[in-house]
Amino acid sequence: MTAAGLNWQGLMEQMERALPHTQASDASLAYFRYPKRTVTLSLPVRMDDGAVRVFKGYRTVHSIGRGPAMGGVRYKDGLNAHECEVLAGIMTLKAAIADLPIGGAKGGVNVDPTTLSPGELERLTRRYTSELVELIGPREDIMSPDIGTDEQVMAWMLDTYNENLGDTSSGVVVGKPIPLGGSYGSKDARGRSAALVTEQVLGSVKNLSVAVQGFGGVGRKAAQVLAQRGAHIVAVSDQAGGAYASGGLDLDAVIAHRDLTGSVDGAGLRLTAQELLALDVDILVLAWDYGAINAGNAADVRARTLVEATNRAVMPEAETFLNRRGVQVIPDLIASNGGVIVNYLEWVQDASNFFWTEDEIVRALDTRILAALEHVMAFARTRQTDLRTAGYAVALNRLHDATILRGIYP
Question: Residue ranges of the Glutamate/phenylalanine/leucine/valine/L-tryptophan dehydrogenase C-terminal domain (predicted)?
Fold first, then answer.
């Protein structure tokens, strides 16, 4: 799926179905339709062989109507400005649904990080951060991990920012290592929220069959939590391949196999990622990247419930087709918002320099995940809409309220 499949038109068409259920005005919608800013960066980096290679980088701040912007930095081959803008808009919606006083952002570099040495990756990260140093900050734009980045990349960003400004601020990035002001629960939050939301929406997951596309940090945690609650994880996949067992996989063995070989391929009966998407299962968890289910493969889907554990995993045209067949889609707006919630909690801890225990973080995370879900589900029941439409409506109402209260600067 190319970035062309991720566009404003598809997002706005889905949002239009929510408009009759909102108080949104032309003025407040204008603030959503147009990101606050997008910057494009040329990033010269000296490679290990002495040559200089110039990478393209991007950073979009979509909204600051409810507070400073926050969003991921992805290192991904083919990344462009438009992809960052759409994902930043989705981040604004997710933060509003969770009722957090922040807006959405997204950025990154057009690069396959697996082609870089550790030294090259560090130099690229520091160059990217240096170019943005006057635009980012704990009260302006907070960066977090995304596809192709991790807590080590966040540590380099933190150090570069502070060295440039002569500061000791830790809140400019979240998803950091714990010794640098990171938070417990950061790595597991998105997967945990996907599992908790799925159980709550379905009532129970006991004895239900589950396939997980994308057995990285998010997919792994979602699978573990669902299994703890009685589901049978029958298939998992990653970039290299997949594993299947009709009676359920031994997740500990799958994780050990992945740690040893670098992939889940061969941890059970082999299958491809596309074969996994077509399995006859109760729940299909989509935990890789946007566009996993699209017009080209929607007809192959046999799962009864799809869970977007990552942003925009189901394209609008595919969702329309699946809804007609009675397939339920639990949208990213509620299924994966544990990530933005725990990032917000880390930012709050950094601002106060007071850090909570792991149990306190998990309780706060679960409380906010389920509160956001209940609000959306109640709205859906009252208005007789699907969960995505209800989520958009809840978010747009909150963004409208903030826009009207702030007013339009002359």
Answer: 183-407
Specify whether 162 is located in the same domain as 214: no
Kindly state whether residues 161 and 203 are assigned to the same domain: no
Q: Residue 279: give its domain's CATH number.
A: 3.40.50.720
Q: Give kind and range of the element (H or E) at residue 40.
A: strand 37-46
Question: Per the domain annotation, does 375 fall within a domain?
Answer: no
- Over residues 145-168, the pLDDT tens digits come to 999 999 999 999 999 999 999 988
User: Do residues 237 and 213 lie in contact, with contact meaning Cβ atoms separated by under 8 Å?
Assistant: yes
Is 94 among the catalytic positions?
no
Which of the four pLDDT bands, split at 50, 70 and 90, describes residue 6? low
Closest by CA to 139, choosing from 241, 202, 73, 64, is 64
Please state, as a whole number, how many other Cβ atoms lie within 10 Å of the Cβ of residue 203: 7
In which element (H, E) is residue 284 found?
Answer: strand 283-286
**Closest-CA residue to 291 (of 281, 277, 304):** 277
Check 106, 176, 187, 221 and give the catalytic one: 106
Residue range of the domain that includes 133: 22-170
